Amino acid sequence: MAYEIDKPEEQWRAELTPQEYHVLREAGTERAFTGEYTDSKTVGVYSCRACGAELFRSETKFESHCGWPSFYDPADSSAVELLEDRSHGMARTEVRCTRCGSHLGHVFAGEGYPTPTDQRYCINSISLRLTPEEG
């Protein structure tokens, strides 16, 4: 897929920290319960740390106790793309930013959380940047 923001990997490496690059550009995962937004209750907008595209809103964030921020729906269905991921011997659905193709995390369905969509977008904190709502 062609992305609106398409940079050479050298440029991504220069713009992101080594940890951000590993997760966003190499589909890595931060350790559970270590991300800055895992337990955040701040009201605001979560954007892609690589390109700034709006991805999720705090109203859809919920407590899943899985170790990463969880959302039941993206801010806009076209904000994320879903790809089959068969790495690590598992069948999962990868979540990427549609604007720059950066890896965000995975989405799971049918786990029984009391949310309107019965989906859990399990997203790495390091893939996101929270802009608090002004109030």
Structural class: mainly beta
What percentage of residues falls in helices of 4 or more residues?
10-25%
What is the strand content?
25-35%
Query: Strand tally, please?
Result: 9
Mind explaining what this structure looks like?
This protein is mainly beta and 135 residues long. It has one domain (9-132): Metal Binding Protein, Guanine Nucleotide Exchange Factor, Chain A (Beta Complex). It has helices at residues 9-15, 18-26; strands at 44-48, 54-57, 61-62, 70-71, 80-85, 92-97, 103-109, 119-123, 128-132. The strands form two sheets. It has a six-stranded antiparallel β-sheet. A three-stranded antiparallel β-sheet has the order 2-1-9, with no helix packed on it. A hairpin with a 5-residue loop joins β1 and β2. The termini are far apart. The mean pLDDT is 96. It catalyses: L-methionyl-[protein] + [thioredoxin]-disulfide + H2O = L-methionyl-(R)-S-oxide-[protein] + [thioredoxin]-dithiol. This is peptide-methionine (R)-S-oxide reductase. GO terms for molecular function: peptide-methionine (R)-S-oxide reductase activity.
List descriptors:
mainly beta; Metal Binding Protein, Guanine Nucleotide Exchange Factor, Chain A; 135 residues; 2 helices
Topology overview:
Elements: H1 9-15, H2 18-26, E1 44-48, E2 54-57, E3 61-62, E4 70-71, E5 80-85, E6 92-97, E7 103-109, E8 119-123, E9 128-132
Antiparallel strand pairs: 1-2, 1-9, 3-4, 4-8, 5-6, 6-7, 7-8
